[in-house]
Amino acid sequence: xxxxxxxxxxxxxxxxxxxxxxxxxxxxxxxxxxxxxxxxxxxxxxxxxxxxxxxxxxxxxxxxxxxxxxxxxxxxxxxxxxxxxxxxxxxxxxxxxxxxxxxxxxxxxxxxxxxxx
Length: 117
Hints:
Elements: E1 2-7, E2 16-21, E3 24-30, E4 35-39, E5 55-59, E6 67-76, E7 83-85, E8 102-103, E9 105-108, E10 111-115
Antiparallel strand pairs: 1-10, 2-3, 3-4, 4-8, 5-6, 6-7, 9-10
């Protein structure tokens, strides 16, 4: 089911907007790359991501090298700092197997839609 959730200007970059469709609570994120929707809670212990800002993270690199990447695409749990890719819901760097449920988002004529099944 595709639901209209607002116009593009109603979403600030790197922040989320909480929406509810039926019984599902979602967070819709606007990034430099586009819009993404995730489940509201961390799959680890259920804390809400609502007040979380998207960040980047330290990327795998050689010893004594420090590379920052994925700026504005990392969703970090406020309790235990687990990190997920907001685009896919996948945990970063294979440290965990739990994923965040994601939902397809589309933009048509500045109107944002999320698809919930």
